[in-house]
Design brief:
Layout lengths: L1 H20 L13 H4 L4 H25 L5 H15 L4 H37 L11 H12 L1 H20 L13 H15 L3 H8 L8 H11 L3 H16 L6 H11 L4 E5 L5 E5 L10 H15 L15 H19 L2 H15 L4 H4 L3 H4 L9 H14 L3 H16 L5 H7 L4 H21 L3 H10 L4 H15 L4 H15 L8 H13 L4 H15 L11 E7 L4 E7 L5 H11 L1 H8 L5 H16 L5
Antiparallel strand pairs: 1-2, 3-4
C-alpha cells in the first residue's frame, strides 16, 4: 500500500504542477521524469526491503547447513535444490554447490523409490491376476535438474550426462523388454521435460536449445513439445516438423505409428494414438484439440511422407514384421487418417491408400476389423453422446448370464458417466451385486464426481456429495473449502458457514494422521480471502497438528482415488496445493515476515520446517511478476 500511495502522490503532483504552468497552452506538456518518479519505493521502504532480503538470505544459508545433515534423502535433495534455486540471484556459486549436493541425494532417493515401486507392482499383480495401478513416486533427479537448468545450462547438461550413464548401467544390469521406438528413454524424457518447463516460463531460445538433441526422431513426447512450441512460435516449430518429415521419408524404420504421430501435429495437436501388432492401441490427449493452421506446402509434405511410408510393401510371408504397428496397426492408421487424405491429397494417392486398405482388410484379425469406431476417430469427429453409448451396454446387461458379467457392465456405465460429471453414475454403482466391489467403486465414483462438481463450480451438487456421498474427511474438507472460495464474493455468509463446517470435518481426523494438518491448511487457505486473523490461527493449529503427525511433510498434497478389481484398475490422483505449506507461508511472510518466521520455527520435524522456511525466503527474495 505504501508503494501505491507513493506512486499516486507522484502522479498527482505532476498533474497539479502541469495545470499551474500550462494555462495558456491547451496541450499539456509531458511530466518531467524526476529521480523520485523513477523509483517506486521511498528510501525508507528501500532500506526495509534490503534488510528483509538480508534476513531471508541468512535464513536460507542457515537452513542449507542443516539440510546437508537431513537423514531423509528425499527431504535433503529437495531442500538443497530449492535453497539453491532461491539463493541463485544473490549467490550463484553457493547455489551451484548446493545443486550438486542435491543431485547426490536425489540419486540415492530415486533408487530407493524405484525398489519400493517394483515391490508394490509385484504385490498388485498377485492380487489382481496381472493388472495393476499405482501412484508414481516423485522423480527427484528431474526436480533437481529442472531447477538447475533454469539457472545454468552447463550444469543442466552435466546432470543429464550423469543420468544417461546411470540409465545405461541400469539397462545392462537388468533384463528389459524392447523399448517403444516412439517413446523417449528416461534421460531424453528428462531433457524434454526441462525444455517444456523453460518454455512455460517464456524462455523459448533456451527451451529449444535443450530440446533440439531429442527432436531428431518422431516420438510422442517430441510431437507434443513441438505442438507447445507452435502455440508460441509457429515458424520455429514448423521448421523442425518439416525436418522430421524429410528424415522420416528416408528412414527404413519409419512405420504406420510414425505417420500417426506426425499427423497429430497438423490435425490433432496434443492427441496421439499408436497401435500394436495385435490391433490394440494406446493414446494420450489433452482436453482441447484445435487443428494447426499450417501452410498448404507443409500439409502436402506430410501427405507425401505419410503415403510413402504407408504404401511400403508388406513383409514377405513367413518373415517377421519389424515395424512397431504390424499389419493390424497399419490397417487402423490408414483407416483413421483416410478422411484427411480424401480432403487434401491428390486423388491418385487416395486411391492407392484405399486399395492398400482393402488388401490389408483380407489379412487382419477380426478384432481389428471390429475396432470401436468412436475410439478410432477420437479427435477427428465429435464424440457420440453418452446416452448413445449407454444403450448397447444396457442391452448387454439384459442378456448377461451371470452376476459377474452384469457387475462388469454396470461398472463400465458408472465410469463412463462419472467421467462426464453425471450423477447417474452413483445409481449404476448401486446396482453392482458384489458388496466389496460396490463399496470400493462407490468411493471412487463419489470422489470423481465431487472433483468434477468443484471444477464446474456446481457448489450445490458438490455439497450434496459431501453430505450423501462416500467421501473421506480430508476429501470433504477440501470440497467444502473450495466451495467456500467460489461463494466468497457472492455469498460471504454461506462461505463462512462452509469453512466452519470444513473445520469441524477436519477435526474428525485422527490426531496422528497427516491428513489433519493438511485439512487445517485447506481451511487456512480458504480463510485468507475472508478473515486474515483467523487464517493465522488456522495455520497455527496446522503447525500444532503437524507436530503430532509423523508422516506430514508439508508438501506433495494430493487426493488419491483408487479402484482395483480383476477387470478394472484405475488410480485418479489430483494435486492439492491447498494441503501444502508453501502457498500459505508465502502469503503470511508478505504480511508479517517476523511472525511467519516464528510460526515456521514451531515445526518440530525437519521437513515441514524446511518447506515453510524456504517459502518465507522466496516470498522476500523473488521479484514480483507483473
Amino acid at each position: 500500500m505504501r508503494q501505491i500511495i507513493v506512486v499516486i502522490c507522484l502522479v498527482l503532483s505532476g498533474v497539479v504542477a502541469n495545470a499551474q504552468t500550462q494555462i495558456v497552452d491547451t496541450k499539456p506538456a509531458p511530466p518531467a521524469k524526476t529521480a523520485a518518479a523513477k523509483s517506486a519505493l521511498s528510501p525508507e521502504a528501500e532500506r526495509e526491503l534490503k534488510e528483509r532480503r538480508a534476513k531471508a538470505r541468512s535464513l536460507l544459508v542457515a537452513l542449507s547447513s542443516d539440510a546437508r545433515t537431513f537423514r531423509d534423502e528425499t527431504l535433503r535433495a529437495r531442500s538443497l535444490a530449492r535453497i539453491a534455486d532461491a539463493l541463485w540471484q544473490v549467490d550463484a556459486e553457493q547455489g551451484r554447490l548446493l545443486f550438486r549436493k542435491a543431485w547426490e541425494a536425489a540419486e540415492n532417493a530415486d533408487i530407493e523409490s524405484d525398489k519400493k515401486l517394483q515391490e508394490e507392482i509385484r504385490i498388485h499383480k498377485q492380487r489382481t491376476g496381472g493388472g495393476y495401478a499405482y501412484n508414481a513416486p516423485p522423480n527427484l533427479r528431474r526436480e533437481v535438474l529442472r531447477l538447475a537448468a533454469r539457472h545454468d545450462r552447463t550444469l543442466g547438461e552435466e546432470f543429464l550426462d550423469k543420468l544417461k550413464v546411470q540409465k545405461l548401467e541400469a539397462a545392462t544390469s537388468a533384463t528389459t523388454t524392447n523399448p517403444d521406438p516412439h517413446r523417449l528413454g528416461e534421460a531424453s524424457s528428462q531433457r524434454l521435460g526441462v525444455a517444456k518447463e523453460l518454455l512455460q516460463v517464456g524462455e523459448m531460445e533456451r527451451a529449444l536449445q535443450f530440446a533440439d538433441p531429442v527432436l531428431a526422431v518422431v516420438t510422442m513426447q517430441g510431437m507434443n513439445f513441438l505442438s507447445d512450441v507452435r502455440e508460441k512460435n509457429p515458424a520455429a516449430a514448423d521448421s523442425r516438423y518439416a525436418a522430421l518429415l524429410a528424415s522420416s521419408t528416408n528412414n527404413p524404420q519409419a512405420d504406420a505409428n510414425t505417420v500417426s504421430l506426425l499427423s497429430s501435429y497438423i490435425f490433432t495437436p496434443h492427441l496421439y494414438m499408436t497401435f500394436s501388432g495385435n490391433g490394440s492401441s494406446s493414446s494420450q490427449m489433452s482436453s482441447t484439440i484445435v487443428p494447426a493452421a499450417v501452410t498448404p506446402e507443409l500439409r502436402d509434405a506430410f501427405f507425401q511422407t505419410a503415403a510413402g511410408i504407408l504404401l511400403r510393401p508388406l513383409p514377405v510371408a513367413g518373415q517377421p514384421d519389424p515395424s512397431s504397428s504390424g499389419v493390424n496397426g497399419k490397417y487402423l492408421v490408414i483407416k483413421r487418417l483416410l478422411s484427411f487424405f480424401e480432403q487434401g491429397a491428390p486423388s491418385g494417392m487416395v486411391e492407392s491408400l484405399r486399395g492398400h486398405l482393402n488388401a490389408l482388410n483380407a489379412i487382419v484379425n477380426d478384432n481389428t476389423r471390429r475396432y470401436d469406431e468412436d475410439q478410432l476417430n477420437r479427435g477427428l469427429r465429435p464424440e457420440r453422446a453418452t446416452t448413445d453409448r449407454e444403450q448397447p451396454l444396457l442391452d448387454r446387461i439384459d442378456r448377461a448370464k451371470t452376476s459377474g458379467e452384469r457387475d462388469d457392465l454396470y461398472l463400465q456405465l458408472a465410469f463412463m458417466t462419472s467421467g462426464k460429471g453425471d450423477m447417474r453414475a452413483r445409481d449404476f454403482v448401486s446396482k453392482v451385486e458384489d458388496s466389496e466391489i460396490r463399496k470400493q467403486a462407490q468411493a471412487y465414483i463419489d470422489a470423481s464426481l465431487s472433483l468434477s462438481s468443484v471444477q464446474k463450480k456446481l457448489t450445490d451438487q458438490a455439497i450434496e456429495l459431501v453430505h450423501k456421498g462416500d467421501l473421506t474427511s480430508i476429501h470433504k474438507t477440501w470440497v467444502l473449502t473450495e466451495c467456500a472460495k467460489i461463494l466468497a464474493k457472492t455469498d460471504r455468509e454461506k462461505a463462512v458457514d462452509l469453512i466452519e463446517e470444513a473445520a469441524n470435518e477436519a477435526r474428525r481426523i485422527e490426531v496422528s494422521d497427516p491428513d489433519l494438518p493438511r485439512a487445517l491448511l485447506a481451511v487456512a487457505n480458504a480463510l485468507k480471502g475472508i478473515d486474515m486473523a483467523r487464517a493465522w490461527d488456522a495455520t497455527f493449529d496446522a503447525v500444532k497438528a503437524a507436530n503430532s503427525a509423523e508422516g506430514f511433510t508439508g508438501e506433495d498434497g494430493e487426493m488419491v482415488a483408487k479402484f482395483q478389481s480383476k477387470g478394472h484398475s484405475s488410480v485418479h490422483t489430483n494435486d492439492v496445493p491447498e494441503f501444502d505449506l508453501e502457498g500459505i507461508f508465502k502469503d503470511l511472510a508478505v504480511l508479517d515476515y517476523d511472525r511467519a518466521v516464528e510460526l515456521a520455527r514451531g515445526f518440530q520435524a525437519e521437513g515441514p520446517r524446511a518447506v515453510a522456511t524456504i517459502a518465507i525466503a522466496r516470498a522476500i527474495l523473488e521479484p514480483k511478476r507483473k
